C-alpha cells in the first residue's frame, strides 16, 4: 500500500500560515486505490486558510506573568482580528491566565512555542452560559474553555499548551463523593430531554455541577487543531459537535488522571481527520458519538465519514471507541496505522451501546493497529452498556471489519456481547494475531462472525 502523505501546517517567512499536502498518495496510473473510502473522505477535508495578518495578545494588554487575568485582552484580539477580515491571534511565550476564550470566524488562535493558556479554576469565569451538548444532551451550561458556535474557518495551532488546571479540588470533585456533585443535574437534564422540554429551558451553569469541556466547537465548519498540547480538562478534552470538515493533527492530549476525561470526541460530525495525535486520558482516547437517548433522536445527526490514522494511544478506557452516545448513528469510521499500549489502556477497539441509546453503528473499518498491552479485552463490542439490556431502541450494529491487528498481551482477545433479540451482525477479523491472552473469549448473540487467519496464543482459530 502506498504510504500516506501528511498535510502539514508550516510557518513561513513573514509569518504566513500555509497548508500543504493532503490525503493519501495517489494510486499508480491505471491501478485502483487500495483504500477508496478513505481517499474519498480525505478529498473532501481541507483545513482552513487564514490571512497573513497577526495580532499579538500582548498588544491588547495580556501579560504572561501567570497572574494577570488576560481574558479581556484575548477577547479583544480575537474580535479585532475577526472584524478586520481574519488572520492569526498570537499568544507568545509566557503563562497567560484566562477565562473562557470564544473563537470567531476566520481566526486562528496561534500558541507560540513556550506559551501556556492557564485557565481559571473559578466556575464564574465561564459565565454566561452557552449552548452546548453535555454527554449527548443539549442544554445551556458553563462555557467550554475554548468555544465557538456557528463559526467558519477557525483554528487553534502552534506548539503551546492549553492547561485546563482541573484537579481533585477543582472540577473533578464534581464527579462523585459527597454533595455537591453532578449526579442530580445529570439526572435532571436527562429527564428534561425525555419530557420534551425545549433546549432553551434546560439552563444549568451557576448553582449546578455539569462540568464544561476544554475545547468545544459547536455547529462549526472548517476547523483545524494543529500541534497544540491540551491537558487536565474538567471533562472531555476536545469535543467538536455537529461540525463539518474537521482536522485534528499532531495534537497531544495529556490528561490521564481526570474522570470522564475523553481525549477527542467528534459528536455528530461529518468529514473528520484525526492524525498523528498522542493521547493519554482518564477515559476513552478517541470516541465517536451522536447524541444520547431522546435528545439524540431529536437531533438525529450521525457521526459519519472519519479517518483516524498514525495516532498513539496510552492510558484510556478505549483506544478508538464508538459510543456510548450512539442515538444518531455512527457510520463510515476508518482507523489506520495506530499504536496503542499501556497498563492502564483497558481496550484497544471498543463499541458500546444499549437498547436505550439505539442508533445504527456500521461500516467501522480498522486496519494495521499494533497493541502492546491492554488491561481488559483487546476488542470489545457490547450492547449492554451500563448494564442496560432492555429498552425500546435496540442498536443496529453490523459491518465491523478489523484486519492486521496484533496484540502482545491482554486478558482476552474478544468480548462480543449482543442481545438475544438484537444480535451483533457481520463482524469480521482478518489477519489478526493475539499473543499472551490469559482468558477465553466471550462471544454471545453474534450472527455472522467471521475469523479469517486469526491466531490466539499461537493457535489458528478460523471459522
Would you mind describing this structure in some detail?
The protein has 463 residues and is mainly β. The chain folds into two domains: 54-224, Pectate Lyase C-like (3 Solenoid); 284-463, Single-stranded right-handed beta-helix, Pectin lyase-like (Pectate Lyase C-like), CATH 2.160.20. The chain is built from four helices and 36 strands. The strands form five sheets. It has a 22-stranded mixed beta sheet that branches. It has a six-stranded parallel beta sheet with strand order 23-26-28-30-32-34, with no helix packed on it. A hairpin with a 5-residue loop joins strand 1 (8-11) and strand 2 (17-20). The longest helix is centred in the N-terminal third of the chain and has 13 residues, at 71-83. The radius of gyration is 22 Å and the shape is globular.
> How many helical elements?
4
Beta percentage is: 35-45%
Give the overall average pLDDT. Answer: 94
How many structural domains can be distinguished in the coordinates?
2
Strand pairing plus helix content: what structural class?
mainly beta
- Stretches where pLDDT falls below 50 for ≥5 residues? 1-26
Give the end-to-end Cα distance, rounded to a whole number of Å: 27 Å
* Major sheet characteristics: 22 strands, mixed
Q: The CATH topology of the largest domain is what?
A: Pectate Lyase C-like
CATH class of the largest domain: Mainly Beta
The CATH architecture category of the largest domain equals 3 Solenoid
Overall geometry: globular
Structure summary, number of beta strands: 36
Helix content range: under 10%
